[in-house]
């Protein structure tokens, strides 16, 4: 690779990373203004959470198309479509006079992020040498893990000094910059597809994921009711139908053949668990801080900032460590820190203050960022270079759906306690928050066990 070509590749990745960063930042930037939106639009918390859950769900569904799209169309034009969709959704959000319009704008922005994130990873996996893969994947992981953690801080700062609408306005110049950079530097060429697009599989996948997320939201309205179990069962049946159509049709939406490897299975579940907790905390912590601790939206957002900074610093370092020493030690050590932080959060919940929240979150984020990027990097080393697009697409779908599920469950558990619990609103929210923290802790323990089991499998081969 020539020096000029090398520079163009990095600028291309930077352009895709910028669009991905502001897209994911926007996912969680509205989390701190949930109480304001409840009052302004006259809708309950279980409905307001759809501006985040719906966004993430849209991202997940769109990512289901990217394995095909990245083989079929130049990444440059896909990036252009993503940037234009983000700008359109942004304008809808900032001018919305009803909750429906606000939600529609968020869905359109979700289309943008669903395209831009896999584009960023595809540029890395196809244009970056293997010896630098860990470092560059660490940079990408910093983008997709730092942005959602920074989102509430950004949203809190803007909402405290202006209004929640300015959260959208300030992102527009960056979206335009990403659009220009993408058109100037992205030159990645597609491999081509030998079969047509599987629209039936996409429809079934979209219906399945939507049903599952809607089932989770029903917990916030009526607990674990008959409606919840029926909708969850429908989602599972639709997902099984998706798998059948995807594997037995003329073409595949995604190559699920990568899951013939048990190590890929475990890596995907690990990736899911990490992002489930990460995004779940990004909404649970600000909501808890405002309702229980009486913090302002600014303080609620700032609680997550130090941990986000620590995580951002550690993300590329974790990739470099993996490049030099292998994936096993950084992953196990990171997951252990992750679990230690979640144990501490659960144990000291009755004593929590904004400062204690900050300290515990730093520990959680340090563990998360030592683990997150290395999980997908390790997975890509277990497949062929051509299958990297499938790992890219599937793993990004997994982590976005995990985030959607994390937000949905975290808000649902708080909402049901607010609705049916006893005591003041603060006490009821505290009860729901405690259950959130326990769920996150159990997920973290499973993540650690899966990582240990995965490396045992890899070492046996």
UniProtKB/TrEMBL annotation:
<dbReference type="InterPro" id="IPR020846">
    <property type="entry name" value="MFS_dom"/>
</dbReference>
<keyword id="KW-1133">Transmembrane helix</keyword>
<feature type="transmembrane region" description="Helical">
    <location>
        <begin position="226"/>
        <end position="245"/>
    </location>
</feature>
<dbReference type="InterPro" id="IPR036259">
    <property type="entry name" value="MFS_trans_sf"/>
</dbReference>
<feature type="transmembrane region" description="Helical">
    <location>
        <begin position="77"/>
        <end position="93"/>
    </location>
</feature>
<feature type="transmembrane region" description="Helical">
    <location>
        <begin position="9"/>
        <end position="28"/>
    </location>
</feature>
<keyword id="KW-0812">Transmembrane</keyword>
<feature type="transmembrane region" description="Helical">
    <location>
        <begin position="266"/>
        <end position="291"/>
    </location>
</feature>
<keyword id="KW-0813">Transport</keyword>
<feature type="transmembrane region" description="Helical">
    <location>
        <begin position="437"/>
        <end position="455"/>
    </location>
</feature>
<feature type="transmembrane region" description="Helical">
    <location>
        <begin position="198"/>
        <end position="220"/>
    </location>
</feature>
<feature type="transmembrane region" description="Helical">
    <location>
        <begin position="297"/>
        <end position="319"/>
    </location>
</feature>
<feature type="transmembrane region" description="Helical">
    <location>
        <begin position="133"/>
        <end position="155"/>
    </location>
</feature>
<feature type="transmembrane region" description="Helical">
    <location>
        <begin position="393"/>
        <end position="417"/>
    </location>
</feature>
<dbReference type="GO" id="GO:0005886">
    <property type="term" value="C:plasma membrane"/>
</dbReference>
<feature type="transmembrane region" description="Helical">
    <location>
        <begin position="48"/>
        <end position="70"/>
    </location>
</feature>
<feature type="domain" description="Major facilitator superfamily (MFS) profile">
    <location>
        <begin position="12"/>
        <end position="461"/>
    </location>
</feature>
<dbReference type="InterPro" id="IPR011701">
    <property type="entry name" value="MFS"/>
</dbReference>
<feature type="transmembrane region" description="Helical">
    <location>
        <begin position="167"/>
        <end position="186"/>
    </location>
</feature>
<dbReference type="GO" id="GO:0022857">
    <property type="term" value="F:transmembrane transporter activity"/>
</dbReference>
<feature type="transmembrane region" description="Helical">
    <location>
        <begin position="331"/>
        <end position="348"/>
    </location>
</feature>
<dbReference type="Pfam" id="PF07690">
    <property type="entry name" value="MFS_1"/>
</dbReference>
<keyword id="KW-0472">Membrane</keyword>
<protein>
    <submittedName>
        <fullName>Multidrug efflux MFS transporter</fullName>
    </submittedName>
</protein>
């Amino acid at each position: 690779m020539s020096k000029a070509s090398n520079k163009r590749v990095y600028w291309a990745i930077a352009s895709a990373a910028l669009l991905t960063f502001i897209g994911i930042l926007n996912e969680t930037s509205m989390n701190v203004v949930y109480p304001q939106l409840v009052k302004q639009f006259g809708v309950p918390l279980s409905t307001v959470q759809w501006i985040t859950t719906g966004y993430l769900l849209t991202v997940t569904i769109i990512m289901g198309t990217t394995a095909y799209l990245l083989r079929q169309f130049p990444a440059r034009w896909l990036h252009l479509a993503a940037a234009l969709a983000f700008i359109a959704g942004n304008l809808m959000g900032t001018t919305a006079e009803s909750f429906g319009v606000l939600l529609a704008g968020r869905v359109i922005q979700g289309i943008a992020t669903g395209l831009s994130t896999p584009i960023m990873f595809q540029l890395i996996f196809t244009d970056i040498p293997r010896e630098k893969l860990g470092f560059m994947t660490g940079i990408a992981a910093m983008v997709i893990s730092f942005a959602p953690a920074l989102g509430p801080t950004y949203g809190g700062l803007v909402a405290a000094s202006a209004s929640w609408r300015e959260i959208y306005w300030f992102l527009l110049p960056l979206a335009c910059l990403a659009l220009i950079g993408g058109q100037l530097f992205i030159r990645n060429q597609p491999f081509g597809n030998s079969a047509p697009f599987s629209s039936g599989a996409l429809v079934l996948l979209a219906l399945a994921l939507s049903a599952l997320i809607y089932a989770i939201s029903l917990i916030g309205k009526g607990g674990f009711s008959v409606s919840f179990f029926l909708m969850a069962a429908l989602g599972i049946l639709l997902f099984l139908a998706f798998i059948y159509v995807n594997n037995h049709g003329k073409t595949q939406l995604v190559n699920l053949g990568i899951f013939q490897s048990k190590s890929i299975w475990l890596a995907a579940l690990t990736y899911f668990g990490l992002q489930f907790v990460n995004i779940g905390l990004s909404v649970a912590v600000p909501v808890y801080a405002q309702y229980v601790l009486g913090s302002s939206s600014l303080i609620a957002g700032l609680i997550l900032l130090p941990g986000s900074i620590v995580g951002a610093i550690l993300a590329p370092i974790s990739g470099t460590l993996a490049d030099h020493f292998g994936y096993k030690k950084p992953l196990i050590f990171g997951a252990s820190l992750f679990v230690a932080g979640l144990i501490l959060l659960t144990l000291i919940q009755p004593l929590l203050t904004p400062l204690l929240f900050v300290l515990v979150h730093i520990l959680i984020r340090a563990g998360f960022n030592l683990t997150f990027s290395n999980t997908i990097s390790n997975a890509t080393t277990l497949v062929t270079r051509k299958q990297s697009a499938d790992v890219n697409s599937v793993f990004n779908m997994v982590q976005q759906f995990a985030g959607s599920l994390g937000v949905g469950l975290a808000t649902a558990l708080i909402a049901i306690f607010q609705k049916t619990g006893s005591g003041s609103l603060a006490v009821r929210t505290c009860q729901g928050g405690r259950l959130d923290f326990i769920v996150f802790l159990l997920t973290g323990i499973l993540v650690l066990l899966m990582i240990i089991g995965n490396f045992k499998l890899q070492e046996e081969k």
